[in-house]
Structure formats: C-alpha cells, structure tokens
Hints:
Blueprint: H1 3-8, E1 19-23, H2 30-41, E2 50-54, H3 55-61, E3 67-73, E4 84-90, H4 93-106, H5 115-119, H6 122-129, H7 134-137, H8 139-148, H9 158-170, E5 174-177, H10 181-192, H11 216-225, H12 227-253, E6 289-290, E7 295-304, E8 311-314, E9 317-326, E10 330-340, E11 346-351, E12 359-361, E13 364-373, E14 379-388, E15 397-412, E16 465-469, E17 481-490, E18 505-513, E19 518-520, E20 526-527, E21 537-545, E22 551-561, E23 565-566, H13 567-570, E24 576-582
Parallel strand pairs: 1-3, 1-4, 2-3, 4-5, 8-15
Antiparallel strand pairs: 6-15, 7-9, 9-13, 10-11, 10-12, 10-14, 14-15, 16-17, 17-21, 18-19, 18-20, 18-22, 22-23, 22-24
Amino acid sequence: MKESRHETFIGFDVPGSRKIFHFHIPKTGGTAIREYLIAQAGESQITPLLGGIRFSDALLQWDHKQVLSGHVVFHQGDEIPSDYYAMTFLRDPVDRFLSDLFYGKHQSPDQPRDARLRLADLDSYISKIQHERQDAVALQLSMLYPIGAKETDCNLGVSEKLAAAKKAIDRFDLIGIQEDLDDATCMLAAEMEWPQKTLPWANQTWKRISVSDLNTAQQKLIETVLAPEIELYEYARDRFRRDRRRHITSSTSNPSIAKEHRTADNIQTAVKPVDRRITSIKQGRKPRNFGDKRCEVTRVIAKGSVTGAPEMLCGEPILIEMEIAAHEVIENVTVGIGIRDERGALLFGTNSRLLGDAIELEPGRYVANFSMLNRLGRGQYCIDVSLIKDLSHHDGCYHWFEDAARFEIYDLVTNYFEGRFMLDPDFALSSIDDSPEPRIDRVHVEQAGVRSFGRMNPPLSQFDASIQLLSPKHALPAATDSFLQLRVKNSGLEAWSASGYCRPVCLTYRWYSQEGDLIVPDGLRSILPDDVAGGNSVIAPLLVRAPDEPGTYRLAISLVQEDVAWFIEKNAASGCLIDVEIA
C-alpha cells in the first residue's frame, strides 16, 4: 500500500462498517475529540456539531453521516442502536463546573447565556447553585441518566437518577476521562484499527481559575452540591481504567491489533467491542401510553379555524384540543403537546409550564387548548400529549399518550413557498463595488391565485392589553442584547395583526432613569409570533438592548401599532414597567 493511502484512507467508505456516536457533554474535551474524529474520518463524514436536538430525531436527520456528534438530548425510551459505536467523555465535576462557568463569562459573548454567568462573582454564584435543581447544576448526571432510565420511570430522586446514569455508562462502548483523553483516543484508534494520530486540543477555557485556586469553603460547597455527580465520575473513571488495562493487555498479547495502519484485507474484521446496549430502535414501534392515570387525557383533536378537522391548510390558525379527566386532587400538573411527522421526528413541542402556567386540578373534567398559527407544510402529522409533574416525566407522570390524534395539511393558504414549513422571507438585491444599481419592478405572479383568506390592517381604536414578564427579573449586562420572555394578552375586542405591509402590531420598549428621565425613546421592535384575537394571548420574546452605562433603570414595555400609536400612550395600564439593574 502506498504511503499516501495511509493519509487519505478512511474505513467508512466500506459498506457495513460500524457508525460512531459521540455523545458530547459540554466542557469535557468533546471539541478536541470532534477534531480528532474529523482528522481520522474526514469532515464530510461527520455531522455538524449538534446542539439540543433529540437523539432519536438526530438519527433520522443524519442517517447519511457515519459519525454522529453533538450535545444531543435523550428522552424516555430513546435507545442507542447497536450498529453504532457509542462513546462519551466525563470530567472531574468540580473542574468541569469551573470551566463551564468561566467559559460562559468570557468566551461566548455572542451567544445567549444566563446573565448570572456573566455578572456574578464566584462566591455569589456558588451560593446560588445550592438552590438550583440538581439537573441544572450536575450537567453530566442530568444528560446521562435518561439513557439508563426506563421509559416509564417516574418520580426519580437523586439516588435513582444516579443509578440510571451508572447504567448509561455501562451502555457505551467507550468511556473516556478528560484528563486522559490521549489514552482514550489510542483506545478508539485500536478499536477502529485507525492509524495513531495526535489529539488536537481545542476550545480550551481561558481566564479561569483551577480547582487548586478555590479556598476550602468554596471547594467544600461545590463538592456538596455536586456529590452525586462526583460519585458518577468515580464510577466512570473506574470503568475507563479497567478498559484501558484490557486494551494494554490485548495489544501486548496480540501485536496485530495494535499495528499502525489499517489495510484493505482487515477492514471488515476490525475489533468489535462488547455490545453493552439493547437492540436497535425499531421503526414503527407501537406508540406508548402509560402513567399512573390519576388524571388522564380522554380525547384529543386538531382542527383548523377555517377548515375544521382533521384536514387543514398551512397558514390558518390551528387548535389542538384535549379533554382531561382528573380522578383526584392534582396539585401540580403540566399539560404538554408534541407534533411529529410521518417518520416520527419531533417538529414542535411545548407545555403549559414553559408557557408560564402552574396548574392545580380538582376532581372533574377539563378541556385544554393549544392554539397557534399552522406553519407546517403539506403532509400527515401525529400529536403526542402528556400530563406530567413539573418539566419532566421522571418527576412524575400522570399520563403519557403518543399518537393521540392525527391530522393532514392538504393545501396552502398562500403559494409563495415550497417545502414542509412556512417561513417569512424577505428579499433584497443591491450593487457592490460601484456597480450600477439593479432595476427592480413589482410584478404579478401568474401562478399566484387570489385567495380570500386574510385582511387589511385597519387602525386600532382599542388599546387594551396586558403584558406579563415571564423571565426572572435579574440584572442585565450593560450594552448587550437580551431576550425577555413575555405573555401578551389582547384584552380588547379588535384583533391584532402581527404582519402586513402597513400597521402591524409589535412589541417595543423605552428606557427611563430612576428619576423618570427618558433615556431611550424608541426601542428595538420584536414581532409577535402570531395574530392575536381579542381575549387571546401569546408567548413572545422581547429583544432589549441595555443602556451603555451601569445603574438602575426603568424599562417600560409596550405594544405599538406602527404608524398609529404606542399602546401605553393610549392606555397606560396596557404596558409593563419594571426596574432593571444594569451592571
């Protein structure tokens, strides 16, 4: 074999070769591992760095790639297919905590981050984490335990989550430790019969302190909060050391396993690690229906506001309605929905808790409604519904009901797009480098028939609204943009149009000093996610640009109908006024 072949050959171009799944837990050396995989397999063979996507959806979307890598999320029932070589890496929890904290403070200025990470000093931030949910602090534990938990597990405490996370560790083919990444990549190369290559270190945190810089009180407090994750880390480190000894013993007794380069004759006979996992995900699996049924969903239907059910149009408002029967007092219930396509990929999901509602039910029958603008394109879809406690079914599950209803999008209310989702594009064309300006005329599109669905935007005569701030009232960094989550209700009778060539209704703000002086008279505009009929409400993000100078300010949030009026100028009670500390 020619030497040049050693540098360009990758084993993945052979049909039947095993795929790789790299479960990237943040700040555990995952970026370096990703660069290593690119060096070994080629960038075209690896997915983009995935973030926040559900694992089962990632499998569907990136089935054509040989290496699946990223911060994916596991839900109940998700399994790692046996035809994937699965690996993940852990890090000393205290060291990972510090790395993540200082990375968020100094190295990701353009990414949306919790403002506390950037503003709090070390002692105040450490004191705050004592009151956080365990899942929010012990990230390695929270990302791993759903893999080892059963799909019907409910009310999991910390000890149960720790036990499930240990089971998850056992289901990976390779467990690595951040401080021994070089050894882990040598083990990976031996398993895949790759040539040994130097691990490229990347995405390291700077401007950070080390564990040795902590005083005794700081270290003890962090270790107390992270105690379950520290135990999980010790379990993973023991597993890594055992596997490393096995590799050393194997390569010593059988030198052919450790040879430097892979050849064409042994591609199909690479060392296969022990399969620690259960069988592959099966397409067409029977929808799940479980829970303690203390309250349960008895009926689900989806319908369009114009066309009804179960067939509707892309572009019309859609209503998902579910009937709920509570058989006893339920002190804390979260109502959730999920919409999936024909393959089972999750397209959209939300729940009442994320929308800002805490619900308590007495015994009886209820109707829950989710309404939104339907932006789904032509196709068939199914609806999953859930009644859970808090934000996770692991905290308590009353009823988890998949494929509870189906609907079809058979046509469009407009025809300016093709595909599966309706978006809101705009188009612009301009010249550069002293080139002549293009000539652009408005034209009629022959294929665009007139459809009598919609309205002009007349000036409003009512300015009745209520705005509720759902985001915590924490301080904001000076001279930065931040999103505040709002619930906006139309308290009048006239509908608000969120779009249109003229007079749309949108969100904005003004900044005042503590003394009442107007600092910023006309803030950034944030569009509403949908038209809002009288009596209805929407959840909307407001983009706010903080003042440049630190201090205490007053933020006046208001709706505005462009070219007509600010709501708070017509009705002072329609806005929201809050004090904000700018640091």
